[in-house]
Amino acid sequence: MTEETQSVMQRLRESTRDLHDAAEHHDFQRAFAQGSLPKDRYVSYLEQMYLVHKSLEQQLRKAAETSEAVRSVVDERQYQVPYLVEDLEFFEVDPDSIEPLAGTQRLIDEIEQMAAQPASLLGLHYVLEGSNNGSRFIARGLMPAYGLAPGPGLRYLDPYGDEQRERWQAFRATMDEVGFSQEDSDRLLEAARHMFQGIVYISDDLLAEAVS
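The structure corresponding to this sequence follows.
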């Protein structure tokens, strides 16, 4: 299938596969998925992802005021900050006290640089929304590892519960229906790659903290 005949979601998936695999197979992410990280490292991960989502979701909400594409794709339940706040409060972390690691700040800076392009914001969002497909299975493994039950403490990893498959299919369909121009499709791809790389940088920082 040529690039011209691929749907935007097919192109995103296939053109980011290398960075998706790099992020997924990072030593920190592997330990995270196996439930072998100390609980405080899991909490640190939530802290850094809170900062990433806060930055991106602020820009998405602004973009939704003028962008039909953003309004079409992103609904209120996709905003993950409330879930992260719920988890952080469960672990007695004040969200206002969190400081970004170097990789997190780098990613936040990139988000701000892309803020003027709604397609770029959707490319960033695509990566985080897609991560819910695997993270709900990680949540199941973390329950015995950390003595957690479904709900607070795991809300970010499993925001949609049994609706996950249905919601992802709806997201994919809506993205494909937008009708992005070739220029915006390219922006989507570039931004998605930045997000995957940003997750790698954050994982690097979290792993360095874990072994220091």
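The chain has a mean pLDDT of 93.
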